[in-house]
Design the sequence.
């Protein structure tokens, strides 16, 4: 997997991703403490509002921004968005009203909604060989998992020495270091297409290509399955561990580490597995783990047996394994399904449409958990996950060729099915 780091451009971009992720992780911890500082017992509502704003920015801003930035060099855009994010992070310690938090979070996440799809779309051009690109996808998944483990520990260590406001300084350093690393390399630029159609046509280009492509419709359904399991873990781990099992905050971190550990195991195994198998069966196997894990937990809790601590850790590791197996191959499908000049638009569509699923499942995980308890939350999210698998099987035919690009949506789009 690590051989792809021999490519200098990819090595610098991967380092930029890792450093920015660590900075973002510090900001996540600091934002929770800032919310408590401003709102006290209502901090959960503030964080819930910030999460909703994040999803709105991801769903609504990404495709709109992509419609107007396709003529801007990728490196210029990436550096500009890193600088914007650094400025916003620098401003956060000085806010004293909740509405100011919401405004700054919207600006921060809007910049991320422009940065992330552009960054993701650049990697296939940096690493055109599919085997190398597959390994880059696994490294990226590994980076996300490591961030979820390392950032809280780093934040805890720093908080013994400094005020939480200084954690935002770590975020600023992360974004500025990311910008410097991006500036240090030349990023391939796809062919520029002449602008055709109005604002609506340009804004929806990526979504139209995406939704007309069978394998990408299947990817969207698989994303919903992953979001159902991921939302259960992210939203309700603290409830299951602290309230359900009466364990400590340290055990909350350990449970999340079990999920991240399962995901990391899959990230290491997937490159060789995907050399032997096509994407669809690998994603289907990962989805089976997610649906099965949610279903087993629902049966145990609704049946009255409950989840013991060892069972919860095993289930979380199982969900992490399936989660990574579903999400990691997605970049291969996107790369294969769009011409280079349309790739940024298609990655932006994936970013927006997949987060729509997260918005739904986050809401279900929180609302059903509060109203009906954890057992029924597992059950309902399990049904959503199973529905995603059924939709993927229907939308993405098994005989869909992985290696043949077919014209789609007219020659002007340059898309492939």
Sequence:
């Amino acid at each position: 997997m690590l051989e792809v780091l021999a490519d200098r451009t990819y090595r610098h971009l991967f380092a930029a991703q890792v450093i920015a992720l660590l900075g973002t992780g510090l900001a996540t911890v600091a934002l929770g403490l800032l919310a408590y500082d401003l709102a006290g017992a209502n901090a959960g509502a503030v964080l819930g509002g910030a999460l909703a704003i994040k999803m709105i920015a991801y769903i609504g801003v990404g495709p709109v921004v992509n419609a107007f930035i396709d003529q801007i060099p990728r490196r210029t855009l990436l550096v500009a968005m890193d600088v914007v994010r650094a400025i916003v992070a620098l401003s956060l310690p000085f806010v004293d009203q909740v509405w100011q938090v919401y405004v700054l979070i919207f600006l921060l996440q809007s910049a991320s909604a422009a940065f992330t799809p552009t960054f993701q779309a650049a990697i296939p051009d940096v690493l055109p060989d599919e085997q190398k690109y597959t390994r880059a996808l696994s490294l990226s998944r590994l980076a996300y998992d490591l961030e979820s483990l390392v950032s809280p520990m780093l934040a805890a260590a720093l908080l013994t020495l400094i005020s939480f406001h200084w954690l935002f300084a770590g975020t600023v350093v992360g974004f500025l270091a990311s910008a410097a690393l991006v500036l240090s390399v030349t990023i391939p630029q796809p062919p520029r297409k002449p602008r055709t159609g109005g604002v609506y046509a340009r804004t929806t280009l990526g979504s139209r290509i995406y939704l007309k492509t069978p394998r990408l419709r299947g990817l969207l359904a698989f994303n919903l399955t992953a979001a159902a399991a991921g939302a259960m873990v992210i939203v309700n781990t603290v409830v299951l561990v602290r309230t359900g099992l009466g364990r400590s905050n340290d055990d909350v971190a350990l449970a999340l580490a079990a999920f991240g550990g399962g995901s990391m195991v899959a990230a290491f195994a997937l490159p060789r597995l995907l050399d032997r198998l096509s994407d669809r069966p690998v994603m289907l196997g990962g989805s089976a783990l997610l649906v099965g894990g949610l279903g087993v937990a629902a049966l145990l809790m609704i049946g009255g047996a409950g989840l013991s601590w060892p069972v919860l850790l095993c289930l979380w590791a199982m969900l992490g394994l399936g989660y990574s197996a579903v999400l990691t191959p997605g970049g291969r499908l996107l790369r294969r399904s769009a011409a280079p000049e349309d790739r940024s638009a298609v990655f932006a569509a994936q970013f927006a449409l997949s987060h729509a699923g997260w918005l739904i499942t986050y809401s279900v995980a929180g609302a059903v958990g509060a109203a009906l308890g954890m057992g029924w939350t597992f059950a309902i999210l399990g049904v959503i996950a199973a529905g995603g698998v059924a939709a993927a099987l229907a939308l993405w035919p098994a005989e869909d060729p992985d290696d043949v690009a077919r014209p789609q949506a007219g020659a002007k789009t340059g898309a492939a099915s």
Summary: Residues 8-39 form the longest helix (32 residues). The CA atoms of residues 36 and 43 lie 5 Å apart. The beta strands are 407-408, 415-416. The longest strand covers residues 407-408.
